[in-house]
Amino acid sequence: MSNNGFKVKIGLASCSIAAGAAKVHDLLKDLLADDGIHLQRTGCMGLCYCEPQVEVVAPDGRSYLYGNVSTDNVGQIVEEHIKKGEPVEELLVVPPDGASEAGEYIGRQERFLLHNCGNIDPENIESYLDAGGYKGLAKAVAMKPEEVIAEVKSSGLRGRGGAGFPTHQKWTFARDAKGEQKYIICNADEGDPGAFMDRSILESDPHSVLEGMMIAGYAIGASVGYIYIRAEYPLAIRRLKIAIAQAKEHYYLGTNILNSGFDFDIKIREGAGAFVCGEETALIASIEGKRGMPRFRPPFPAVSGLFASPTSINNVETFANVPQILAQGAAAYNVHGTEFSKGTKVFALAGKVNRGGLIEVPMGMSINDIVFAVGGGISTGKAFKAVQTGGPSGGCIPAELADTAVDYESLKEIGAIMGSGGLLIMDEETCMVDVAKFFLTFTREESCGKCTFCRVGTEQMLRILERITEGEGTEEDIDTLEDLGSKIKAGSLCGLGQTVPNPVLTTIKYFRDEYEAHVRDKVCPAKNCKALIEYEIVAEDCKGCGLCRKQCPVDAISGGKKEPHVIDQATCLRCGLCVNSCKFDCITVSSKPGKTAPVDGQGMGAVS
Amino acid sequence: MMKTMAVEELQVLKEKNPLLAIDAIVQRHNADPGSAIPILQDIQNTFGYVAPEVLQRVSELSGILESELYSIVTFYSQFRMEPIGENLIQVCHGTACHLAGAERVSEAIMHETGAKDGGTSPDGKFTLEKVACLGCCSLAPVITVNEETYGRVAPNEVGKVLKEINGQTEDKKAGCKGGCHHE
Ligand SMILES: Cc1cc2nc3c(=O)[nH]c(=O)nc-3n(C[C@H](O)[C@H](O)[C@H](O)COP(=O)(O)O)c2cc1C
Ligand code: SF4
Ligand code: SF4
Ligand code: SF4
Ligand code: FES
Ligand code: FES
């Protein structure tokens, strides 16, 4: 049988695979084989909220994007659309004219850097080459290294790892530094919980990162590059290995690249699970085979970095921008963005938002536009409360300030940071004290312990936050948190300690009333903190089905068949498992003044 | 120089003679500067954990001080010094998963398996680990079981998932002719 002119693609990144895309792929491949249609694998299409996705391109070139595809409905797409030419309307998320919710999600973005993601096959270099890959490198090696740096300078590119340091400056320092051997390092540690931009780029378009590293290597005079990638990303590591091997076969990596006399090799180093290794001097220590402890700077890595040689270290997304800047010219890049924050930024939009996923927007778009126009608003139907940017080093921005433009300067002005691109959307059911406690718990475990303020101060702040969420806090505690916060910032050696207090300080700044409710009234307004809440069964609504009783890990629920059940407050751990199990929605949660409950020391409800 | 070995070859070698597998791993990396971490990672991949006893051998072969190896193993959270159960469950406690109720998922798993955080269940079937962000935040809460990822995990269904998985590993063992340790 012959190919009827349809082209079919399926997104296969780890996010899609977690949603079941691998099984859909296998079935679809079998179904299409009969018609001689090749199924093309791509990386992440970016619409996490309706994974798995299948794109069908009709013989007339019109594209149809299907979402939430499963092994149950993929046969229907093949039968009706591909065999009979009748699109399956109910499964379509983006019709050819783009008029749909998902169409709007994509339409509001500017996909400059992600243009290959979801289009090309990340495991096939030909696919990258067809899309214009390695043209940036070809252009670069025909230029003088200084000209390459000048091009990056006029693009206005700033580092995407968090701090926004101008990339051309870093490269100039490393180029000017004395040393026989120089190194490029790609920081793919992506330690911020809630961030997945770098993973998606590496899984979907790995060659763009390699190409960016090669251009950087050429610019500073390095012949070796390392990619330091977290071990939690096995698919990204696998695709990088494939990409490196294919780049070598095609002579983009190796000696005398493109007959220019430029030699370059890329090696992969897997991280071993330490957040602080995202900090550049700790990362370098880790590649050298030591504990990942930050060290004092200067000397900066550009002067004395890996194995004491000049080293330029950049983030994945920073590198991924470079090939296009070279291929299309700086002017094509800096049309996007604002005066001081050029280009686009990739964000991982997650949390309580309708359309979460991997997005790319021009710098300067407002938070409101990201949450509502791109993200489609709050998923729970509750009020939008805050957005958290920058992970554990970042801040919480309240909904009132959501008209703030997302660029380096504007975010800094309100006490938050751009960070690497995690955007966590929170609704009114999110307790801001709990969020602060969450980040502190994370960073306390990740502090390397070198500086007293970072090590001990973080521990103390965490204890206070625990006290507050347990209803034992006082008014002074809030002031102490602020005081400790500013001291830790001042007394810490590396970026971890210097930013650890940010989530606490910004939540106090913008949500002080919530802290006060915890300490004064012993109330958690978001009904989240275990010691301050109560689960109750509404007797009138309870059908006595017993499902909740079976779910309760501590037998706190009792009641006869078809009789209203009751929760014994003294036994209840406030784990909330019963709420999920009730099909009739009759278990309520409340937080009333003066009702602090001792939480039993079992499981994770433990009070330390 | 000895030919570098693929992961599968190392597995086979390990079954025959664990010491030789360690030799092969060290050999594989020794030419690289800063090879301590990749060596230890390979050992963990092959054996499932880094037994304190192997550090001496690695030190002899690589010339890296034993104390240095020890300090690496204790610094990085990836390394385990004890064997794990038949199934490794990782529960994401990253921000998105925290907001989506990761605590409840962990609690349900502890309740279901009897494993404590970071520990193995009394029957040796499940080891539970909390991890930070698995990169699938839009599917929060997320867990992985033996490297397979599950998204939008409902705490009251976790038990079912685990029973299924445990059933599968039992089947696999029954069908296995010996020699292989992985799937
Ligand atoms: C504690 C800590 C963790 C960090 N984690 C990362 C990370 O995961 N990825 C990253 O690219 N940069 C991270 N950074 C920033 C890097 O140190 C460095 O500034 C960045 O990689 C430079 O790249 P850029 O100039 O392209 O932004 C971290 C910094 C600190 C202090
Ligand atoms: S600030 Fe914290 S993480 Fe950074 S070097 Fe000091 S103790 Fe280590
Ligand atoms: S909240 Fe947890 S402990 Fe309390 S009654 Fe419900 S299931 Fe039982
Ligand atoms: S699950 Fe709901 S309806 Fe059933 S007994 Fe419990 S509270 Fe009542
Ligand atoms: S679809 Fe890939 S990040 Fe979500
Ligand atoms: S926070 Fe759990 S996958 Fe990212």
UniProtKB/TrEMBL annotation, chain A:
One of the Pfam families matching this protein, by short name: Complex1_51K
Family: Belongs to the complex I 51 kDa subunit family.
Domain of life of the native organism: Bacteria
Alphabetical list of CDD domains matching this protein: TRX_Fd_family
Lineage: Bacteria, Bacillati, Bacillota, Dethiobacteria, Dethiobacterales
Protein name: NADH dehydrogenase (Quinone)
UniProt keywords, alphabetically: 4Fe-4S, Iron, Iron-sulfur, Metal-binding, Oxidoreductase
Domain 4Fe-4S ferredoxin-type: 533-562, 563-592
Sample GO molecular function, one term: oxidoreductase activity
EC number: 1.6.99.5
Residue runs in coiled coils: none
Organism: Dethiobacter alkaliphilus AHT 1
